[in-house]
Design goal:
The chain has helices spanning 2-14, 16-24, 26-45, 49-66, 68-87, 89-99. The protein is mostly helical.
Length: 103
Amino acid sequence: MKDKIIAGLSLACDFKGLLFRRITSPIRSAKIINFGLDLKNIFEQDKDTANMLCQALDLIVQFRRENPEEYQEIFDIINEILDTHDEKRDSIHQNLKSLKDIF
Protein backbone atom coordinates (compact mmCIF):
# COMPACT_ATOMS: atom_id res chain seq x y z
CA MET A 1 0.00 0.00 0.00
CA LYS A 2 2.88 2.35 0.80
CA ASP A 3 4.27 1.84 -2.71
CA LYS A 4 0.93 2.75 -4.25
CA ILE A 5 0.72 5.97 -2.25
CA ILE A 6 4.23 6.90 -3.33
CA ALA A 7 3.40 6.07 -6.96
CA GLY A 8 0.30 8.25 -6.81
CA LEU A 9 2.20 11.15 -5.30
CA SER A 10 4.94 10.76 -7.88
CA LEU A 11 2.40 10.93 -10.72
CA ALA A 12 0.80 13.98 -9.13
CA CYS A 13 4.23 15.59 -8.95
CA ASP A 14 4.93 14.79 -12.61
CA PHE A 15 1.68 16.47 -13.66
CA LYS A 16 1.64 19.18 -10.99
CA GLY A 17 1.42 22.07 -13.45
CA LEU A 18 -1.59 20.56 -15.13
CA LEU A 19 -3.26 19.69 -11.81
CA PHE A 20 -2.75 23.13 -10.28
CA ARG A 21 -4.16 24.86 -13.36
CA ARG A 22 -7.25 22.64 -13.10
CA ILE A 23 -7.63 23.48 -9.41
CA THR A 24 -7.21 27.23 -9.97
CA SER A 25 -9.84 27.38 -12.72
CA PRO A 26 -12.69 25.18 -11.49
CA ILE A 27 -15.39 26.59 -13.78
CA ARG A 28 -13.29 26.02 -16.90
CA SER A 29 -12.35 22.56 -15.64
CA ALA A 30 -16.02 21.72 -15.00
CA LYS A 31 -16.97 22.72 -18.54
CA ILE A 32 -14.22 20.55 -20.01
CA ILE A 33 -15.10 17.59 -17.76
CA ASN A 34 -18.80 17.85 -18.61
CA PHE A 35 -17.93 17.97 -22.31
CA GLY A 36 -15.80 14.85 -21.95
CA LEU A 37 -18.55 13.03 -20.05
CA ASP A 38 -21.13 14.00 -22.68
CA LEU A 39 -18.86 12.59 -25.39
CA LYS A 40 -18.38 9.42 -23.38
CA ASN A 41 -22.14 9.01 -22.99
CA ILE A 42 -22.66 9.36 -26.74
CA PHE A 43 -20.15 6.62 -27.45
CA GLU A 44 -21.60 4.33 -24.79
CA GLN A 45 -25.29 4.71 -25.67
CA ASP A 46 -25.59 4.49 -29.42
CA LYS A 47 -24.74 1.36 -31.38
CA ASP A 48 -25.22 2.98 -34.78
CA THR A 49 -21.75 4.21 -35.71
CA ALA A 50 -22.88 6.85 -38.20
CA ASN A 51 -25.42 8.31 -35.78
CA MET A 52 -22.91 8.19 -32.93
CA LEU A 53 -20.28 10.07 -34.95
CA CYS A 54 -22.79 12.69 -36.10
CA GLN A 55 -23.91 13.30 -32.51
CA ALA A 56 -20.30 13.55 -31.35
CA LEU A 57 -19.40 16.01 -34.12
CA ASP A 58 -22.48 18.10 -33.33
CA LEU A 59 -21.48 18.19 -29.68
CA ILE A 60 -17.89 19.18 -30.55
CA VAL A 61 -19.03 21.98 -32.88
CA GLN A 62 -21.51 23.24 -30.29
CA PHE A 63 -18.88 23.17 -27.53
CA ARG A 64 -16.39 25.00 -29.75
CA ARG A 65 -18.95 27.67 -30.62
CA GLU A 66 -20.09 28.20 -27.03
CA ASN A 67 -16.71 27.78 -25.27
CA PRO A 68 -13.83 28.76 -27.60
CA GLU A 69 -11.33 29.25 -24.77
CA GLU A 70 -12.10 25.91 -23.17
CA TYR A 71 -11.95 24.23 -26.58
CA GLN A 72 -8.42 25.55 -27.07
CA GLU A 73 -7.56 24.55 -23.51
CA ILE A 74 -8.37 20.91 -24.34
CA PHE A 75 -5.59 20.89 -26.93
CA ASP A 76 -3.22 22.63 -24.54
CA ILE A 77 -3.94 19.94 -21.92
CA ILE A 78 -3.30 17.15 -24.42
CA ASN A 79 -0.02 18.76 -25.51
CA GLU A 80 1.15 19.13 -21.92
CA ILE A 81 0.28 15.51 -21.12
CA LEU A 82 2.19 14.31 -24.19
CA ASP A 83 5.20 16.51 -23.42
CA THR A 84 5.34 15.35 -19.82
CA HIS A 85 5.00 11.73 -20.93
CA ASP A 86 7.88 12.15 -23.39
CA GLU A 87 10.10 13.69 -20.72
CA LYS A 88 9.33 11.20 -17.94
CA ARG A 89 8.18 8.11 -19.83
CA ASP A 90 9.82 5.45 -17.65
CA SER A 91 8.78 7.03 -14.36
CA ILE A 92 5.18 7.46 -15.48
CA HIS A 93 4.92 3.90 -16.81
CA GLN A 94 6.33 2.45 -13.60
CA ASN A 95 3.99 4.50 -11.41
CA LEU A 96 0.97 3.57 -13.52
CA LYS A 97 1.88 -0.11 -13.25
CA SER A 98 2.11 0.28 -9.47
CA LEU A 99 -1.33 1.89 -9.36
CA LYS A 100 -2.95 -0.57 -11.76
CA ASP A 101 -4.05 -2.91 -8.99
CA ILE A 102 -6.04 -0.18 -7.22
CA PHE A 103 -8.40 0.36 -10.12
